[in-house]
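Hi everyone,

Forwarding the result from last night's run.
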Amino acid sequence: MINLKWSGVLLSFNLCFIFSFAQSEVGARNPEPGKPALFSNLPDRIPVEINELQHFFSNIAAEKEMTSSFIEKNIPGFNGKIISATSKYNNTLRSVVVSSTRLNGATLTLSSTTTTDGTVRYSGRIVSFHHDDLFVLQKEEEQYYLIKKKFNELVNE
């Protein structure tokens, strides 16, 4: 009788194990149809000079209204308010976030890192979560470019 009881418990356990699903696969969310493009009138690649990026970090003060020369020249009308400015590790890591006052909630995030040999690298993006396109700052050879991408290429929700 005891062997029959244990066989029933073992059978019940195996059936529960076979028919239960602990995790289900969740695929990437499809892009929202009808999201407007914010930068449709701008080229796909915008060259950015390194001295413009250096100048961007030279006069940062939190809670100030500002216009960056490279953004204003390449993306007319982008001026905004600095909402965050950070410098860590003796200025080897600097970051700034600027919220646009004209471009429907677009935000510029720009970072600068300095290696031990003195090499400075920049990274950043201009993105609005309500639009279908964005710009990513990328270095190709010795030149930086703002490269236009689709929102879902970069952000996976």
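Strands lie at 45-48, 65-66, 80-88, 93-100, 107-114, 120-127, 133-140, 143-150.

Cheers,
N.
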